[in-house]
């Protein structure tokens, strides 16, 4: 059986990073690997750049152009749907800013191809992983603290539920309504997705990686999406509607 592996890359003003990311991903020579960029009309021309990459890699590189900055969560939602439409059997997600080492994609895919997991999360907070070693203490504490908070308020046994570097069997994303359940517009989406995958009883595995802060371009994180995640996560536990896994 031929496998199609689609890596979804949301982009907003990532023209300085996208060519490196794409080169490093294709350098891995993963059979059946395709890339799907979801660009929100980036003012820096990331969309045009992606179109030229699509011409250089016919059939292996796809671009979804959206009308404006509609947020990370909806970029993933649209990207996942498009990846499924393209016939992907394995769907990965990675940030464009090179914080997630593209060389690790193969380690995310392996447990799925081996039938050992349904969802694989690249994790900073399991043995062997870490946040950016150069981060100041308060930044490390904030990131780690956010994950401890997510785990405490939701009960999900996941060490890095906010990680945006992960991989799914297509069946997970095809599960009815699952990708529509998260309510956060920003990175809280990641934790909500992890939560719903867990509650559905999907097998989740974490593999370690070391995060590196972006060197080029700027962060799109805002106070709004941090607050949104803090407020939303405790509500998840109250909505038992979707459970097949029992909340501890
Ligand atoms: N299409 C789309 N992509 C987005 C949007 N917001 C962020 N992104 C992309 O999502 C990825 C993660 O965004 P970042 O700004 O790096 O945010 P982050 O990684 O959570 O935070 P940092 O640690 O500050 O980098 C990057 O590839 C962004 O270009 C959006 O509204 N639309
Ligand atoms: Mg980033």
Describe the structure using short key phrases:
248 residues; binds magnesium ion; seven-stranded mixed β-sheet; alpha/beta; 38% helix; Spore Coat Polysaccharide Biosynthesis Protein SpsA, Chain A; 15% strand; binds guanosine-5'-triphosphate
Topology:
Layout: E1 5-11, H1 18-27, E2 33-39, H2 46-56, E3 61-65, H3 72-85, E4 90-93, H4 105-113, E5 119-123, H5 137-154, E6 166-169, H6 170-174, H7 188-199, E7 204-208, H8 223-236
The protein binds guanosine-5'-triphosphate (GTP) and magnesium ion.
Structural description of this entry:
This protein is α/β, with parallel strands linked by helices. Helix content is 38%, strand content 15%. It has a single domain (5-240), classed as Spore Coat Polysaccharide Biosynthesis Protein SpsA, Chain A (Alpha-Beta Complex), CATH 3.90.550.10. The chain has helices at residues 18-27, 46-56, 72-85, 105-113, 137-154, 170-174, 188-199, 223-236; strands at 5-11, 33-39, 61-65, 90-93, 119-123, 166-169, 204-208. Strand 1 (5-11), helix 1 and strand 2 (33-39) form a beta-alpha-beta unit. The mean pLDDT is 95. The structure holds guanosine-5'-triphosphate (GTP) and magnesium ion (MG). Magnesium ion is lined by residues 95, 97, 99, 214, 219.
CATH topology: Spore Coat Polysaccharide Biosynthesis Protein SpsA, Chain A
CATH class: Alpha Beta
Radius of gyration: 17 Å
Mean pLDDT: 95
Task: Report the order of strands and helices.
Answer: EHEHEHEHEHEHHEH
Shape: globular
Within CATH, the superfamily carries the name Spore Coat Polysaccharide Biosynthesis Protein SpsA, Chain A
Tell me roughly what share of residues is in helical segments.
25-40%
Question: Biggest sheet, strands in spatial order?
Answer: 3-2-1-4-6-5-7
Strand tally, please?
7
Taking the sheet with the most strands, its summary is: 7 strands, mixed
What share of the residues does DSSP label as strand, in percent? 5-15%
The small-molecule ligands in this entry are: guanosine-5'-triphosphate, magnesium ion
Structural domains: how many:
1
Structural class of the secondary structure composition? alpha/beta
**Treating each run of at least 4 consecutive H or I residues as one helix, how many helices?**
8
What is the architecture at the second tier of CATH? Answer: Alpha-Beta Complex
């Amino acid at each position: 059986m031929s496998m199609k592996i689609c890596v979804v890359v949301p982009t907003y003003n990532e023209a300085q990073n996208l060519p490196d990311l794409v080169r490093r991903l294709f350098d891995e020579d993963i059979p059946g690997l395709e890339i799907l960029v979801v660009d929100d009309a980036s003012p820096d021309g990331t969309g045009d750049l992606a179109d030229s990459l699509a011409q250089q890699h016919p059939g292996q590189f796809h671009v979804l152009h959206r009308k404006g900055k509609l947020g990370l969560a909806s970029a993933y939602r649209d990207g996942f749907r498009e990846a499924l439409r393209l016939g992907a059997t394995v769907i990965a997600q990675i940030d464009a800013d090179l914080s997630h080492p593209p060389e690790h994609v193969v380690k995310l895919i392996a447990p799925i191809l081996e039938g050992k997991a349904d969802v694989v999360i690249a994790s900073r907070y399991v043995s062997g992983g870490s946040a950016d070693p150069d981060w100041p203490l308060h930044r490390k504490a904030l990131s780690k603290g956010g994950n401890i908070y997510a785990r405490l308020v939701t009960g999900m046994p996941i060490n890095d539920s906010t990680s945006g570097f992960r991989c799914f069997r297509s069946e997970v994303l095809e599960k009815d309504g699952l990708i529509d359940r998260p309510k956060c517009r920003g990175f809280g989406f990641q934790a909500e997705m992890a939560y719903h995958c867990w509650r559905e009883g999907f097998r989740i595995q974490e593999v370690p990686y070391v995060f590196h802060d972006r060197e080029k371009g700027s962060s799109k994180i805002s106070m709004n999406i941090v607050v949104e995640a803090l407020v939303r996560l405790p509500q998840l536990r109250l909505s038992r509607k979707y459970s097949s896994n029992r909340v501890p």
